[in-house]
Amino acid sequence: EPEVTQTPSHQVTQMGQEVILRCVPISNHLYFYWYRQILGQKVEFLVSFYNNEISEKSEIFDDQFSVERPDGSNFTLKIRSTKLEDSAMYFCASSAPSDMGNTIYFGEGSWLTVV
Amino acid sequence: AQSVTQPDIHITVSEGASLELRCNYSYGATPYLFWYVQSPGQGLQLLLKYFSGDTLVQGIKGFEAEFKRSQSSFNLRKPSVHWSDAAEYFCAVASSGAGSYQLTFGKGTKLSVIP
Lengths: 115, 115
Hints:
- The structure holds 2 protein chains of 2 kinds.
- Chain A contains no helices and 11 strands.
- Chain A has strands at about 5, 10-15, 20-25, 30-35, 45-50, 55, 65-70, 75-80, 90-95, 105, 110-115.
- In chain A, the strands form 2 sheets. In chain A, strands 2, 4, 5, 6, 9, 10 and 11 form a 7-stranded mixed β-sheet that branches. Chain A has a 4-stranded antiparallel β-sheet with strand order 1-3-8-7, with no helix packed on it.
- In chain B, strands 2, 5, 6, 10, 11 and 12 form a 6-stranded mixed β-sheet that branches.
- By secondary structure, chain B is mostly beta strands.
- The interface between A and B is medium-sized, with 28 and 26 residues.
């Protein structure tokens, strides 16, 4: 079964550093997402991306965050100047066009620890 | 704004017993509803989804859920729980953007299974 893959699985970074989380969505999918889950809290929507631009973003997704699809397969989340409260599990996800069922498939997550 | 409530934070059942996990949602239009499962250290796996049609939906691993519009509920059930079902279960409601879906998750219910 096709899957969304994420790297790294775990990253520890110092406060103030920049982090890039990488994702390879399912190959025929056109919509890409980032969600995050702070330990013990809900999974929260960050951003959706379609046709090389952001289609929706939450209030969490401020200027500290950016997303990019640098080539035909990767989808990245960049966090500039990380803060302690950015420590969370970050999930990448993708979905196909609506005529293919609209299921959002998640990767296994990248656990970010900011120290 | 949409929201999802999972009233039970933690449920413990004996192996072989039946299971029902509760989910209530708040959404102005016809909801798209999902149940995801997260095993320790793993990503979010889709169990089942409801978009329209038959209000009783079947999913993977023997799970089913029933959409009850009058009660704004989408409870997850399984007739006989296996030890491998121990995990955290998330109910989610989707709002559709321009072809993409923004999921709003509940806080999750952790399921423990006693042998």
